[in-house]
Design brief:
This protein is an alpha/beta fold. It is built from 8 helices and 9 strands. Helices cover 46% and strands 17% of the residues. The model has no long low-confidence stretch (mean pLDDT 92).
Length: 247
C-alpha cells in the first residue's frame, strides 16, 4: 500500500496530540503519523508511545531536548524516506492546521512536487489572530517573496506536502535553519531545484490549547536568514548540480 507520513513535531502538546492523531488517521488508511518529540516535560512523548503501542500507523521519534523545529523535520524526513513514504507532510500539533485538508494536499500532489497550504491565496485566511500577528506574518511573507524573487504568496507557512523525490534530491544535511526561516528555505530550495510548487488555500486557526512557540526572536531570525539564503543558496545548489554532473 502507498504510504503517506504526516510529521508532527511536539513539545508540550499532550492535550492536543490525543485528539489530533485520530483525526489524521481518519483521512485514509494510507496515512501514518510520525511524532517527533523533544522530551516534552508534560509527557507528550509517553502518550505518543502509548498510542503507538495500540496503533501500527503511529510512530514516535524521541529526542533528548528542545533542538528546534528545523532539525525535528529533517530527522522526520529521513525517517519517512527510509519508511518508504511517497508523500511526506509537515503539520503543527496544535490544530492550527485542519487534518480534514490532508486529502486536498494528496490530490494536488498528483500534479506537482510540493504542495503548500496557503493563508494568502483565494479561499485561505487566518482566524483568531491579533492584528500584530497578522501584520508580522503577512509582512514576513511579502518581505521574503520580494528578496528571493519568487511568486509564492505564503512562504512562512508550515502545512506542506512533499513528494519523496523532492526530499531525496535535497541535501538535508545542509539545512541549518529553524522556525519561519526553515519553512522559507525548504520552499526556496525546491524552487531553485526546478520542482513544481503549488499553493492551495487553508484556514489557519490560532491554537486553543497550550502555548504558542512563536517569538520575536524567531521572526527576526527569519528576516536576517532570508538575505543569507538569497546570497548563498543559489550558488550552493548550482555547485551541487555540477558535482553530480561530473560524477
Amino acid at each position: 500500500m502507498v504510504k503517506y507520513v504526516v510529521i508532527v513535531p511536539t513539545y508540550n502538546e499532550r492535550n492536543n496530540l490525543a485528539l489530533l492523531i485520530p483525526q489524521i488517521l481518519q483521512q485514509g488508511q494510507e496515512f501514518h503519523v510520525l511524532v517527533v518529540d523533544d522530551n516534552s516535560p508534560d509527557g507528550t512523548g509517553r502518550l505518543a508511545d502509548e498510542i503507538a503501542a495500540g496503533e501500527p500507523r503511529v510512530h514516535v521519534l524521541h529526542r533528548p531536548g528542545k533542538l528546534g523545529l528545523g532539525t525535528a523535520y529533517v530527522e522526520g524526513f529521513r525517517w519517512a524516506l527510509d519508511f518508504g513514504a511517497e508523500l511526506i507532510f509537515e503539520m503543527d500539533a496544535d490544530f492550527s492546521h485542519d487534518p480534514r485538508r490532508l486529502p486536498a494536499f494528496v490530490e494536488a500532489a498528483q500534479s506537482c512536487d510540493l504542495v503548500l497550504g496557503s493563508r494568502y491565496v483565494a479561499g485561505g485566511g487566518v482566524e483568531n489572530w491579533p492584528l500584530t500577528r497578522r501584520l508580522m506574518s503577512q509582512g514576513g511573507s511579502l518581505y521574503a517573496r520580494t528578496i528571493l524573487g519568487v511568486k509564492v504568496r505564503d512562504l512562512t507557512g508550515g502545512f506542506k506536502c512533499f513528494r519523496r523525490r523532492v526530499l531525496e534530491a535535497m541535501d538535508l544535511g545542509a539545512i541549518r535553519t529553524s522556525g519561519y526561516a526553515f519553512q522559507i528555505e525548504m520552499t526556496y530550495r525546491a524552487l531553485l531545484m526546478g520542482f513544481c510548487v503549488r499553493e492551495i488555500p487553508i484556514r489557519f486557526v490560532d491554537r486553543v490549547r497550550g502555548k504558542s512557540k512563536m517569538s520575536r526572536r524567531i521572526f527576526w531570525e527569519a528576516v536576517l536568514k532570508v538575505w543569507e539564503l538569497r546570497l548563498k543558496l543559489p550558488r550552493q545548489i548550482k555547485r551541487a548540480r555540477q558535482a553530480r554532473s561530473a560524477a
